[in-house]
Amino acid sequence: MGAVAVTVRFFGRMHQLLGRDELEAQGSPGTIGELIRLLAQQHGRVIKEELLDEEGNIDYSYALFVGGERVEGPHTPLRDGQEVTVTSMLAGGQGCSTTR
Amino acid sequence: MLHHKIAYIDLSTGVVGAEPLPREWRRRYLGARGINMFLLHSRYPPVDPLSPQNPLIFGCGLLTGLPGFGSGRMNVTAYSPASGNLGDSNVGGHFGPELRFAGYDQLVVTGRSPNPAYLLITDNKIEIRDASHLWGMNTLETQQALRRELRHDGLRVLTIGPAGERGVRMASIITGPKDAAGRFGMGAVMGSKNLKAIAVKGTQDLTVAHPRELLAHSREQYQALWKRKWIQTLGHLGTPLLVAPANEGGWLLSRNDQSGPLGERGRAIYADSMEPFSLGMASCFGCTVHCRHRHRVKGGPHGEGPEYSVFAWMGANLEVLDTEYIIRASDLLNDYGMDVMDTMVVIAFAFELYQRGIISRSLTGTPLEWGDGEAVLTLIHQMAHREGLGDILAEGSYCLNRLPPEAEPYLMRVRNALLGPAPGGRVVKSFGMGHAVATIGGHLHRNRPGVDVLHLPPQVLEDLYGGSVSNDYRSYEGKARMVWWHELLYAVCDSLGFCRFQTVFNSPNAPQYPEYREMIRLALDWDMSVEELRECGERICTTERLLLGRIGVGGREHDTLPRRWFEEPVSEGPCKGELIERPQFEKFLDEYYAIHGWDPDGYPTPETVARLGIE
Fold it and tell me: What CATH number labels A6-96?
């Protein structure tokens, strides 16, 4: 697989936490999960800590979109040139498990 | 001792009376919305909403003013001049707690004062005073004038603005810079009574059954809430944070719900756009969240807000993609005392009529082009002063009486109420269908489900709702149960005086019945089970449904949606093609009525009425 250039746009809480609204992923992330881990290595752990829960799934406090489609989970594939948008949602917290 | 008095104020005769609020009412209807509805149903038959006989009821929640989950809230209820049927509006800020500190839980105002009047409420005392000098002032000026006049900076005031004085049908009642009993024209009812304002100052304690435990428990709850990301996010960005996922997800439609989402253009009005204007965040009484911006625009005074509703209804639906205009419009509406949603819905309707050539410049006086923020501000001024086209639009749903008949299909309304938080209704099926059955027509806050847009695991939804509910927001499966479940919870939340933003409105992990039960036990030493509390919710919703039946809009034929939602699919974006399918909608109604214990025509059965002990 060749290099995948992916632009990530941050709105809301992540924009505030990072102090910037856009990052370019340097590397070859094939999925959303890989992209998040890659960005965390390059731009700070906060990205992974915020966007993934303890089980490695997308944290329910966020809604991610690729090409206008809602990201279902960390295995959502990425293609070269795609833009990922990260927005805040009102949900989750403390794992959002089946036990309250 | 908690003070539980209800006061009756007849503005025609000047007679004021008060009596204890019966404990039995509180056990069965809790307070606020619940008791307001009980009173309307049991004592006040339907009347012309702008007549002196229409009771304007102000009700505090059972726990308003105590440590709790955003316990600064209360309800204002009357027959609605905006829809012609049931009107009810929930308002935050500081007025409700202050009213309780003065010794009153409920106020029932009837009659019409011969001259402009205001009420001054101090500890266990209510006076009717002349307000001639306040008539014509906007809402903030009125509050400032009363504080100066009465030499009390801590005075809390509910007031109408010029819109309420002129009978604008979507007139609101305002307290503080922006807290509004906004929907359904409660400000027009107040204006029709020549009642400009209610000022209150209370100094009495609310003593409770287990004060130390209540404080400790509340502290624990606050700390737990503040660890949650959704609370932190709301406390930093406010409700505008929802604009981004709504637009990116394709739910946030435009041009009076004709067009698809705004795509990249919409990013101009995401929550981040508030940054240059925001001075920090503020809250209602005793709230841990602080969800509203304090803002300043160039050349303008400080204000608060705006909320998601203005971003969605003016920003997206009118395509005014400029946050400064959105703030200015929000401030103007608060100053005039006009409801944001109804005003923006009827303005979007006018823009579409202009687009379609149904009305022209001979009526509008100026082009009404999508995205023209100045035109929106001009129409707000005209509506508040009842000038030109604004005089017609100030009639709300009734504006159709003064427009060509071909205008009718483009007015978004349910049960003759202008459609509240509508964007997304065709896409998110629980949102959309919830509008049809909301007991105050077209107002999603009666039952906004929301949780199915979060992509939660199916097991989370099943555990929460006690039955199978699809986690796909485009699916119809289980959505009747979802709407019913939220309806009951919100009826209880409102009636306790708590805030929607600290319950399952926003997150499945938020406080709900078990936490409410514990608060009630600590405050009142009442041992209410979760089942009893849920039954209070059922009783309140069914009472409201009975009221709708009495008014003549309580049957299945009235539980419907704008034609556009059934017949015009979303035109573009990620949700292209989505609409509400009629067969699925009818199935939803069948399921919804059955779960409520109502008959197939939508009327509560005698068995249900008897089970709930409704008079």
Answer: 3.10.20.30
**What is the predicted pLDDT for the residue at A27?**
83
Residues of chain B with CATH 1.10.599.10: 418-611
The bridge status of strand B195-200 relative to strand B117-122 is: parallel
**Residue B420's pLDDT is what?**
64
Q: Where along chain B do the CATH 3.60.9.10 domains lie?
A: 5-200
Q: For domain B418-611, give the fold.
A: 1.10.599
Q: What is the pLDDT of residues A30-45, one digit of tens each?
A: 999 999 999 999 998 9
Which of A13, A85, A91 is nearest residue B237 as measured by Cβ atoms? A13
| 8 A C-beta contact, residue B313 and residue B344 | yes
Note the CATH number of domain B5-200: 3.60.9.10
What residues in B contact A96, CB-CB < 8 Å?
456, 460, 507-509
Residue B199 and residue B98 in contact, taking contact as beta carbons nearer than 8 Å: no
The pLDDT assigned to B152 comes to: 92
Range(s) within chain B of domains with CATH label 1.10.569.10: 234-388
Cα–Cα distance measured from residue A68 to residue B249, given in angstroms and rounded to the nearest whole number: 7
pLDDT score, position B422: 57
CATH class of B234-388: mainly alpha
Which ranges of B322-437 would DSSP assign to H, the alpha helix? 323-336, 340-355, 361-364, 373-385, 388-393, 429-437
Give, to the nearest 10 degrees, the angle between helix B32-43 and helix B479-496: 90
Pick A97 or B281 by higher pLDDT: B281
Say if A15 is an interface residue toward chain B (CB within 8 Å): yes
Residues of chain B with pLDDT under 50: 1
Whole-model pTM? 0.95
How is chain A split into domains, by residue range?
Answer: 6-96
Neighbouring C-beta atoms of residue B571, cutoff 10 Å: 14
pLDDT of residue B365: 93
The B-side interface with A (CB below 8 A) comprises 227-234, 236-237, 241-242, 244-245, 248-250, 263, 267, 270-272, 450-451, 453-457, 459-460, 463, 506-509, 573-574
Length of chain A equals: 100
**Spatial separation of the C-alpha atoms in residues B173 and B28, rounded to whole Å:** 28
